[in-house]
């Protein structure tokens, strides 16, 4: 099992420096490579103060310029708000500029607030995503592509320059039926139980395994990446402090994910949560070394190929970097023997 550091890009104070925020993210990526993470994941969100990376490909290229081996994963690029004829060329360019380390995670978007502010009805995103993904795959793998669909109609065209490799592709989905359907088509999958319990996680993992089995040879290279809030605490006091911060983070996250979407001047209003902080602590991996090893061993046994670690809940950059160093020294070596070869990891996902 491998580990991927998620660049959470959280700005609790909306007046804080955006430049410092992105400098911190780049520094985290450099440290992730140094201490043994297999990859970093870059979110995409707009108009809000959590997960705020308007251009994940741009961030990937920047990180590529200061690292040498680490994979650069978009988590995720939102397809329904883009024109695939432009985006396909941007993907090829980003892959070239990042030394062919790009892994393209794609999805339909999660927050109604931002999607509809950008002019796309949320209720249409599933249908738009399906067609956009089909168009993107065609443009990345064929020349003189024409299209006659509901959202795209165009005469034959060829994106330039042409891709020099088959760019690894992952599809993000949370619902078990969606995970199974994607895996059945041979896609690698990004998923997350968010703050949900272990049974929710197992339902997602089992859906992927069933879909991959149904795909047979088509799914031979597909992988499951599962995102979870994961923080290796120094001690119990540190764990309690970070759990409190995580609870406050989810007060904002839930507002735009399942709540009313109350946002003022780009800042998401924190709203009360039904889930108690104790219940949240039981579900997340914010803990000291022994519990972390025990829980991650369960993840590995379940068949998760990669854990995408959300580890920034608004704490200082120093705390984040110290945690990454601890994780690299105390946790990653216990799972390193299970790491497949690099070429196998980024094998065919289409």
UniProtKB/TrEMBL annotation:
This is Putative oxidoreductase. InterPro entries: Bact_Lucif_Oxidored, Luciferase-like_dom, Luciferase-like_sf. SUPFAM superfamilies: Bacterial luciferase-like. GO terms for molecular function: monooxygenase activity; oxidoreductase activity, acting on paired donors, with incorporation or reduction of molecular oxygen. It holds the Pfam family Bac_luciferase. The keyword Oxidoreductase applies. One of its GO terms (cellular component) is cytosol.
